[in-house]
Amino acid sequence: MRPLQNQGNLATPSPHRSKTKISLNLSVLPVDAIKRLKREHAKDLSGRKSHASPPELERAPSSQSSKRSSDGKSSTTQKISPSWSPKRNTSPYRKRSRSPRLEPLAKKRKTPPKTSSNRLEVPQPSSKPGSRLDTRTPSPLNSATAQLRKIFGKRCCAPQTCPRTSMLPAIANIPAERSAATAFILELAREKKHAADKENKNKMKKFFNYLETIIYYIYANSHEDDPVALFNNCCQTLNFTKQIQKQATRNSLNSDYDRHFFSRFQVLIRRCQSCLAFVLFDALQDSTNKRNDMIQKLDSRFRPNISSDLTSMTSLKTYADVNETITVNKNLYILQMQQMKVFTHLYYAHRIWKDNDVSMSPLERGMVEEMDRVCGKLYIHAPLPLVTEWMFTALTWLRDEYSEGSCQPA
Question: Domain named AF4/FMR2 C-terminal homology: which ranges (predicted)?
Fold first, then answer.
């Protein structure tokens, strides 16, 4: 066997594995040792590539095994499959990491310090944003429902059936031309009236159908452009509401359940009458202004002289025997009577509205305020489309509450 060359230059290998690369001069090793090293190296590479097998553990080379034998053969490191031990520090084996990319992450990871069981942990402020449920404001719908519950009572189903959005009568295929649309909706209103006349089993449903007919009439009038036609149609609608108000009395109802809705039905009827009366005053506003100018001119020309009559009247103690007559121009009298009729509609509009506001109970006022919140505030000179929307939404609410069946008087 050929003796080893440059044996004095070989340094004693370290007992621990070094990360630096060691270059070996294979020409000085025997052929058997070179083959053995190649086989071990191939096994090492195949073990690294396989993922199914557990990671190989390698014992650190010792100083005794690294020394060459006297016969010139070198001993290599031995590979074993040790048993896994939970004791990390006492095990002589070191786990080989699968990927070098995981090592920097493992170094950066820090374990939290251990706290004593006798010591209370103080919660640290979190940088995460708070939950949306923690800082939310009360919904206006929830607050409105709670307010209605206070007004109507816990046993009443009005808060649950209250509409959340405004609505109009569901009419399909309305003509685009306004005059044709008015005639089309008026025909539907007449059909609603005939259906209400035939309802005899339930008085409250009959009144609801009549109120729906009034709403259809108002909806048809909202499409009218001719002031004269608008005045005539609104006058007929107002007369129809007066007829329904005479028929709908509290004595005509048989149960307390129906009387629970009757007062709110009367509020809606009076609101319709007040708005229609103002439309009658406002429809012929141009002709009203012209008559007012003519009255002022005629009044200045034909002013009667009643000073002598007044002096004689003041001297008398009683006025029973005094014949009080004033001569007025005929044209002036006609204009004044026409103007009085027009202003009578304005007077009744404000009177009905004000009397209705004064006589409303908390339950009726709660319904009006809720409809003002959902549809927009209804006022005496509101346009007819808003009146239609407001009234139809309120009627839908009453019908849904009535059909619920579980409602009891508050």
Answer: 177-290
